[in-house]
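Hi support team,

I submitted a single chain yesterday and got back a structure, but I'm not sure I'm reading the token output correctly. Could someone confirm the output below corresponds to the sequence I sent? I've pasted both exactly as they appear in my results page.

Thanks,
R.
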Amino acid sequence: TKRRLSKFNGTKKNFELHLKECEWRYGKKRAILKKELKQSLNYYLKY
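Hi R., thanks for writing in. Yes, this is the structure output for that exact sequence:
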């Protein structure tokens, strides 16, 4: 974890979002990620 954070030069204001994204991606199959991402994009692009 420490090495990974040093890649980003410390924590930024969007660190919580980055952490949530990693949490969302971890352990999911690519097909499920693609489906969920597509659904989210379709939802937000409607508005």
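A quick pointer for reading it: Residues 2-45 form one domain. Let us know if anything else looks off.

Best,
Support desk
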